[in-house]
Write a structure and sequence with these properties.
Strand content: 5-15%
Largest sheet: 5 strands, mixed
CATH superfamily of the largest domain: PPE superfamily
Number of helices: 8
Structural class: alpha/beta
Shape: elongated
Number of domains: 2
Distance between the termini: 50 Å
CATH class of the largest domain: Mainly Alpha
Order of helices and strands: HHHHHHEEEHEHE
Strand order of the largest sheet: 3-2-1-4-5
Helix content: 55-70%
CATH architecture of the largest domain: Up-down Bundle
Length: about 325
């Protein structure tokens, strides 16, 4: 008989970790901001026409003054429209991140549920409970890592917003740039980006905790989504490299040749996928060497062989413990 309570651990985790943010409400905000930007564009066209007509009807200094005032008003309207459009982009990016996090959690939970069920069946048939307990621990770790990816994505959105939102993030007249519904989720998680900046300047070899968490989360998710029939023979690692200008690159390494990823294993748009048949950590280090990047850290869901671990140490990168038990004296920390 199949145990009836095997779903409870995974179901509880899924309920606890699923973001309680309404992506549909955020998309509604996007539509409203886009409509507002359209109305401002219409105002710009109207002002341009009226100013043109006014300057043609006047002459001398009066015409010059009217034209100058019109240009100033036009610049302010263009700036206001641009700010509204930037806000819409921020909200849309966050809504997409929330929806992707929910979908990824659902997939990872289904895989975890399958593994826990297999352990429960084995326990019911033989009395051996170690497999079930191990599956439950792995489910908790993998699902937590999948949920943590929303934090990382939000940190990236917050960082990009800081670069694209005009100074002080305000519309003319002091209206907040970030819509009210975004203040809570972005405000709470934007601290991740701030912590990244405070931890060290661009180009620093220090690896902030948020980046360590991101690498650990991606390695867990990519490993968990491998097709079960080939999962035992494939290793995936996720590494972080930095160039001389301080630009960081996330690299997904696989033990399969030519960077092949099995169906269902999907990289993020900003990730580079590499693989040459060697250990994925070595593929990451080789990519960094070829692109003149400094390897900062790399993580796989399973430990590397001693030879690969030695190569990681020699490269100067930090080998991240997938369980989160970092050595404070280790390189890069």
């Amino acid at each position: 008989m199949i145990p009836t309570d095997h779903r409870e651990p995974v179901a509880s985790l899924l309920h606890e970790l699923t973001p309680d943010i309404d992506a549909a409400a955020l998309l509604l905000l996007v539509a409203r901001y886009e409509a507002l930007a359209q109305r401002v564009s219409e105002c710009i066209a109207t002002v341009d026409n009226e100013v043109r007509a006014l300057t043609e009807a006047l002459d001398g200094q009066t015409s010059v003054a009217a034209e100058a005032k019109g240009r100033l008003l036009g610049r302010e309207l263009h700036a206001a429209r641009d700010k509204v459009m930037v806000t819409a982009d921020i909200v849309l990016a966050y809504a997409d991140a929330v929806e992707q996090a929910k979908q990824r959690l659902t997939v990872v939970a289904a895989i975890a549920d399958r593994d826990v069920l297999a352990g429960a069946v084995l326990a019911a048939a033989t009395g051996e409970v170690a497999t079930q307990a191990g599956a439950e621990r792995l489910a908790a770790r993998t699902m937590s890592a999948a949920a943590a990816e929303l934090d990382h994505r939000t940190a990236l959105i917050a960082r990009d917003a800081e670069q694209s939102v005009p100074e002080q993030g305000q519309h003319p007249g002091g209206m907040p740039m970030t819509p009210g519904a975004m203040m809570a989720p972005l405000g709470a998680l934007a601290g991740i980006a701030a912590a990244r900046t405070a931890s060290g300047g661009e180009g620093s070899a220090h690896v902030p905790d948020v980046d360590l968490g991101m690498l650990r989360a991606r390695a867990a998710v990519l490993t968990a989504t491998q097709p079960p029939e080939v999962a035992p023979w494939i290793r995936v690692a996720v590494g972080l490299g930095i160039d001389q200008a301080g630009r960081r690159t996330v690299v997904v390494g696989t033990s399969e040749p030519c960077g092949y990823l099995r169906p269902g294993v999907v990289p993020e748009p900003h990730e580079v996928v590499v693989g040459d048949g060697r250990a994925p950590e070595l593929a990451f280090i080789g990519y960094c060497h070829d692109r003149e990047l400094t390897p900062l850290a790399v993580c796989a869901a399973t430990p590397p062989s001693p030879e690969v671990a030695a190569a990681i140490d020699e490269s100067g990168a930090h080998a991240i413990d997938p369980g989160g038990h970092e050595d404070p004296s280790g390189p890069g920390l």
